[in-house]
Amino acid sequence: MDLVGQAAEHFGSLPALRTPEHILSFETCDFLSASIANVLLREGLRPGEIVALVSPNTHELAMMLLGLLKAGMIAAPINCRFPYRLINNTLEKLNPRLILTGSDKPVSIKNTNVVKIASILDAAGSLDLPETISAPADMDRPVSIIHTSASTGTAKAAVHSFANHWFNAIGSNENIPFIQGDCWLLSLPFYHVGGYAILFRSLVSGASMALGNPDDQLEVLLEQFPVTHVSLVPTQLHRLLENRKTTAVLRSMKAVLLGGSPAPKSLIEDAVKNHIPVYLSYGSTEMGSQIATSPGPVTGLQQQSGNVLPFREMTVSEEGELLVRGKCLFLGYLNNGIISRETDSEGWFHTKDIGHIDEAGKVTVLGRKDNMFISGGENIHPEEIENALMMIEGISEALVVPLPDIEYGKRPAAFIRTCTENQPDEREIDQSMRSLVGSLKTPAKYFHVTEWKVLPGSQKTDRQHYCRLATEL
Prior knowledge:
The chain has 14 helices and 26 strands. The chain is an alpha/beta fold. The radius of gyration is 23 Å and the shape is globular.
């Protein structure tokens, strides 16, 4: 299916991509993507081949992704914030047919051409009338490779089909209406599945995307574009709510999709008090972004991540692990040029997340199976303790790790970040935690932090770093 051409046919002159300088219609995006596809095909590339892209979010990168989709090639956007060696190691494992770059970082691997995105766009712009491109009709064909966040190990190359993204977008738009006249701000990078997914949401609905310059502040972009939808992580929302102007902008929106990590009690309360239409979400790279999302804006504090969206299935194993399958489930991980299917005999993908589903179908995620440890013979989920800590007035963020203990084997230790006002002392925290989670789960030690150490090229906290640090302090 030629989704870009189909969108041009159905939505014509409606805005598809908004930038600080231009508004590109669906028809214009179709013409430009066809020109890009022609240039790539003339260079000898073929449908089904992998093209890696190392670039921050720019409208040029967005157009390249549309061009690759039009040409039937597999787009593999790489985290350009990774250190140089990690970028090259990732590229070597990927072994792409071509590397396109919009970054100043030196990129090179053996036997692979490296070309500037700008040069491809210049060549595409010189074509008077591009040849008609017949995009492959097979919806099960691979169209993207998105690497996982590597929060618990090495990043994995998740391969998604056209159908995976298509059904993810349809299910998302059914839950959070995204229609003609709407505009979703691309606040997440394309190398994260939550950013790439917005391309499909726009193409299937006729709504537009907004994309600023890489160095533009989020606050500026929210005021620059007619944004109706935005995807945020809790840290971003917290910063935006500190500003009266951006709070007013958020209040006027249709949806603020919040995910990535648990949101503190104070943040949800602040959002509800300011009438921000926040939707809580649980998702994964492997399922193409959202799995479960609130059916409407939250009206108060809740632990659930909402209901499972259309075209997804979820169940819970005997061990309490969340299992998923459905039309959004990825094709598998790319290893040495081979896609390895990562499902059990019944087609379930094991998420390594621990949680439960209630009778109403609402999903609650307790934490990562990898993070669990045993204390005094009981399973301890750090995320449960972190959520409890963030229920305490004055604690904005928390991270819990295991600390070796002679009597219990391991005890929880907590790294906490407190607000500038109403900072609780450790005695108050300890008393509150004992009433919230009991004595065994109450941290044995507390460490205060002002800034978090995050994984390279990510906003995720480096949990392993704090596991090591707890034993050293």
